[in-house]
């Protein structure tokens, strides 16, 4: 339905994730994987989830074909359930056109709480939603909570107040309006980050003189070991090969 090319929001997100020093990305509602595969090609380790096993099967075939299968983990998962990851497991979360599916406001709130739980301090969440300025807002059957079913497809159109509410306790970095498709669909791309707070032990330098400059980047592995263990509910089909992170880390700081 969405083709093989990465979405514009994914291309943007890869840039901001890289600039923040992120290394691993959790993608929710990954579908057949156009964006997950792009993140993997861009050098990120990707954990891709979706409630559709069919889409994820296609994603895995794509990863094999592109030789990025060692960098992509998939899990069939409904985001109305707790995320299948431990606390503080990932640097960044991406969700394109997921929160505006038929999730109630309460389900969206619970999901964002879960995203907060699995992100490391300073972690970044980029998501997109159709909003109440969309031409289809109010069309079709109303299901409450700004959810309207039109042409057999239910969409939660986000009011700005909901974006702000979901950013409560986060730093809301950007709400970017854009259009997509023929209708056109009117969307927001939202970027929010977790406050850094106290540094976690893995990021605490032991000596400023031995810390490379790139370790100003929150997620640089040169400062301390990074999360490497796969989450219990996620499994990799093969071990990832060693490769350099896309950010400018020194040799040896993979
Ligand atoms: C509009 S598609 C977008 C797919 C992908 N992000 C992309 O842009 O190519 C929405 C995706 O969310 C998934 N989805 C819908 N409800 C979900 C839920 N409750 N939990 C997990 N995934 C869900 C669908 O299976 C579908 O793949």
Automatic annotation (TrEMBL):
<dbReference type="Pfam" id="PF13649">
    <property type="entry name" value="Methyltransf_25"/>
</dbReference>
<keyword id="KW-0489">Methyltransferase</keyword>
<dbReference type="InterPro" id="IPR041698">
    <property type="entry name" value="Methyltransf_25"/>
</dbReference>
<feature type="domain" description="Methyltransferase">
    <location>
        <begin position="25"/>
        <end position="123"/>
    </location>
</feature>
<protein>
    <submittedName>
        <fullName>Class I SAM-dependent methyltransferase</fullName>
        <ecNumber>2.1.-.-</ecNumber>
    </submittedName>
</protein>
<dbReference type="InterPro" id="IPR029063">
    <property type="entry name" value="SAM-dependent_MTases_sf"/>
</dbReference>
<dbReference type="InterPro" id="IPR050508">
    <property type="entry name" value="Methyltransf_Superfamily"/>
</dbReference>
<feature type="region of interest" description="Disordered">
    <location>
        <begin position="231"/>
        <end position="254"/>
    </location>
</feature>
<dbReference type="GO" id="GO:0032259">
    <property type="term" value="P:methylation"/>
</dbReference>
<dbReference type="GO" id="GO:0008168">
    <property type="term" value="F:methyltransferase activity"/>
</dbReference>
<keyword id="KW-0808">Transferase</keyword>
